[in-house]
């Protein structure tokens, strides 16, 4: 498990194994636009302000993934204990 923190509200959400960031946020009433939910379309792309995403998408280039400043919450996870998101 890891946590995501939202920059706007300062709220933290725990992401359990097997549950996507997208689902946890949607269930909490935080709307993130999404479409494919498979890491292909890029609709859910979200800016990362701090932390290191564990990229599982097929949308970003290797260079974009390595920059650690955006990720796809429909499928990607975190290598750090917390991801600070620009939401
Ligand atoms: Fe398509 Fe996340 S919804 S990449």
From TrEMBL:
Coiled-coil ranges (or none): none
Q: The 2Fe-2S ferredoxin-type domain covers which part of the protein?
A: 2-87
State the superkingdom.
Bacteria
Q: What is this protein called?
A: 2Fe-2S iron-sulfur cluster binding domain-containing protein
Q: Which residues of the full protein are shown?
A: 232 to 318 of 318
């Amino acid at each position: 498990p890891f946590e995501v923190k939202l920059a706007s509200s300062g709220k933290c959400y725990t992401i359990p194994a097997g549950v996507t960031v997208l689902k946890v946020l949607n269930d909490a009433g935080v709307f993130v636009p999404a479409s494919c939910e498979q890491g292909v379309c890029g609709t859910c792309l979200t800016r990362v302000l701090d932390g290191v995403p564990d990229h599982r998408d097929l949308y970003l280039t290797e260079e974009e993934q390595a920059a650690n400043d955006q990720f796809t919450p429909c499928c990607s996870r975190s290598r750090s204990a917390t991801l600070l998101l620009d939401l």
